[in-house]
Amino acid sequence: MIATIVNSIAVAIGGLIGLLAKKGLPERISKGIMMAIGLMLICTGVKGYFDGNSTIIAILSLALGTALGELLQLEERLNRLGERIGARVSGSGGSRIGEGLVTATLLFCVGAMAVLGALQSGITGDHTTLYTKSLIDFISAILLASTYGVGVVLSAVGVFVYQGAITLLSGLLAPIMTEAAVAELSAVGSVLLVGLGLNLAGATKVRVMNMVPAIFIAIALAQVMH
Asked: Of 44-48, 67-71, 74-78, 215-219, where does the model show the most confidence?
């Protein structure tokens, strides 16, 4: 769990630095930073999609996963949680805090790096991937918090719970995470990154959190179809 703890602390500290920087950062610069991060995520997502082996699995996973996420209203629930916390913390600006919580949680948890790093940490004791991710997340948290505020700091809890659970269950998950499953996870996760990038760039508003179940459906379908 040490690597997951380091990753969570990196997100929290990066977020706190971003909060301090936010006070002296003009709004146009904050928007420019978000636009740049959004474009980077779109490029990363497009590139990562082609790591997948099956377009059929990606389509089925996204269709079924999004339907399930919409039924469960995952994004709305997480947004409401952020708003309630934000109202207690600041007395105002809860909506912005909720948006920051959702955005940061998705950015730090969606993708193969979080899953593979946690598995490696739990099975082999190799923390290299998560330590590398910690540095990336630290820098991203500074930039995100400079725009979204304390919601980014709160996302450290999500990182700890998500990656920690994978690490603790790594012995059970290892047989499932075949090369094909990782490839499909990467492909579907990359589509979600494109959606998140579009949101950050201000191009549209995609309810990316409601698509998260597609990642786990892709892993399940990979067991059947490969």
From this structure: 67-71
> Which tokens sit at 111?
């993708």
Rounded distance between C-alpha atoms, residue 165 and residue 162, angstroms: 5
> Which tokens sit at 108?
């730090």
Q: Half-sphere exposure of 156 toward its Cβ, with a 13 Å CA cutoff? A: 21
Q: Which residues contact 178 (CB under 8 A, 6 or more apart)?
A: 222, 223, 226
Q: What is the pLDDT of residues 105-122, one digit of tens each?
A: 888 988 777 887 888 888
Read out DSSP for 39-107? Answer: HHHHHHHHHHHTT-S-HHHHHHHHHHHHHHHHHHTHHHHHHHHHHHHHHHHHSS-HHHHHHHHHHHHHH
Contacts of 226 (CB under 8 A, 6+ apart): 53, 54, 178, 180, 181
Nearest to 1 by CA among 161, 149, 145: 161
Q: What are phi and psi of 178, to 5 degrees?
A: -75, 170
pTM: 0.78
SS3 174: coil
